[in-house]
Specification:
This protein has one domain: Rossmann fold (3-Layer(aba) Sandwich), CATH 3.40.50. It is an alpha/beta fold. The chain is globular and about 55 Å long. The strands form two sheets. It has a seven-stranded parallel sheet with strand order 3-2-1-4-5-6-9, sandwiched between helices. A two-stranded parallel sheet has the order 7-8. Bound molecules: nicotinamide-adenine-dinucleotide. Nicotinamide-adenine-dinucleotide binds next to helix 1, helix 5, strand 5 and strand 7. The site of nicotinamide-adenine-dinucleotide has 28 residues, from helix 1, helix 5, strand 5 and strand 7.
Length: about 260
């Protein structure tokens, strides 16, 4: 059985659907802080998913789940992930993303589960020194969100050396799109992602859309971002899971397209 933390959220729900499609047994833990019960109900239409409304900080409840179910590995999406909020309230990010992740890893260790897929981010690199940014690019995160994710990556290296704890860290660039069968999709309140906000300003109530930045070294001075489709991203998690289940060692990969704009 695969434990998915944050499976009621945008990326975790798409991944849960793909796990079911690949015949994995899935158990989701989510405190619904930014996720939605409606998403869990939708996933349940497509497979026998177990759901527990539990906070990652609740070590005892998580430990009970590991005692009761035969969990092979964990895909860990649950986190706070708004960059701007992380600058205003860094405490929330260091507690939820770092402290609560350590709680989860320690429970895993105490139940002899040593395989983890971790949602990391391109934000761990900070401002690019060169493009496209590869996995060896220096890591200088410029906000508490990126720093919290880099801290976890470093902890995972130490846990591997000391406890043989194997992880694949997937460093997402900008995740975009929704399930092509319209079962699940982005549902953030407030929505801070670029593409949903462009769509809102085109078709919804919010008529104004502001693009920040005008002095990047690009044709019009606005920045270039690298997007990855949500279904490709979820597929990468299945591949990473299979890699670990087949005995693969700790590893890390950027998940993007390395194409920020179309050729002129
Ligand atoms: N969306 C992106 O473009 C993007 C880019 C890079 C990395 N990421 C990372 O991917 C992961 C998923 O992102 P998302 O966009 O699906 O976010 P999301 O907010 O939609 O999903 C996160 C889920 O985790 C749950 N959660 C948060 N804290 C929890 C806690 N303490 N206990 C239990 N559940 C908790 C939330 O309720 C939510 O359902 C995050 O780790 C995020 O940092 C996302």
């Amino acid at each position: 059985m695969i434990l998915v933390t944050g499976g009621a959220g945008y990326i975790g729900s798409q991944c849960a659907l793909q796990l079911l499609a690949n015949n994995y047994d899935v158990l989701v833990i989510d405190d619904l802080s930014t996720g939605h019960m409606e998403i869990i109900s939708k996933i349940k239409e497509f497979g026998d998913v177990l759901f527990f409304n539990i906070k990652l900080s609740d070590k005892e409840a998580i430990s009970k789940i590991f005692s009761e179910y035969n969990i092979d590995s964990v895909i860990h999406f649950a986190a706070s992930s708004q960059v701007a909020e992380s600058c205003i309230n860094p405490k929330k990010y260091y507690v939820n993303n770092v402290f609560n992740s350590i709680n989860l890893f320690n429970v895993m260790l105490s139940h002899n589960v040593n395989k983890l897929i971790f949602s990391s981010t391109a934000a761990i690199y900070g401002e690019p020194n060169y493009n496209p940014v590869d996995e060896n690019h220096p890591k200088n995160p410029i906000n508490p969100y990126g720093k919290s994710k880099l801290m976890i990556e470093n902890i995972l290296d130490d846990y591997d050396k000391a406890y043989n704890f194997k992880s694949v860290r997937l460093r997402y660039f900008n995740v975009a799109g929704a399930d092509s069968d319209c079962r699940v999709g982005p549902w953030h309140e407030p929505e801070t992602s670029l593409i949903p906000n462009i769509l809102k300003s085109s078709f919804g109530s919010e008529k104004e859309f502001k693009i920040f930045g005008n002095d990047y070294p690009t044709k019009d001075g606005t920045c270039i971002r690298d997007y990855i489709d949500i279904e490709d991203l979820a597929q990468a998690h299945i591949l990473a899971l299979e890699y670990l289940l087949n005995g693969g060692g700790t590893n890390y990969f950027n998940l993007g397209t390395a194409q920020g704009e179309l050729s002129p």
